[in-house]
User: Fold this.
Amino acid sequence: MKSVGICSILILLLPIAAFAQKGRARAFAQYPAKVEKARAKAIDFKHSYGADTFRTRLTNGLRGEVNFAGHYIVVGWGCGTGCISGGIIDARNGRVYFPNAFHDIGVWYDDNGYTAEAVKFRKNSRLFVISGISGDQEERSDDNKIWGDYYYEWKGNGLSLIKFVPRKRTNEQ
Assistant:
């Protein structure tokens, strides 16, 4: 009899889980971008302040496929324990952008384990999602108030915050 009850609960929960997955996909679809086969020949170090510091990472990233907002390539690197930074290369002209939100992102363990996908994006969408503490948080006096999911839209040459969904940090490091 217990197994019938458990099966009933699982059957009721499956549509909810499927809806949650579709909700995230729909969010990316709300910010469409036409994917191009743009390909710059090299990184534009002259017009990309600070790019020379990450010369190898950016040059290797440019060799990859467009993976964000139609004609951009997101490249990331570690900046210490629980820290991620990165740049966004315009594949049309090789210029690199370093949005504050994508600088020194704080990530750590929560109830579900280590945040494996601290940054989410799609090649056919302008939506950029950061899970953790966004790099544009100047004051980090209370991490529990700024830990969560940050939804940004790529506009022009930068990220514009759409919304923030807080999450409670439960496991301390």
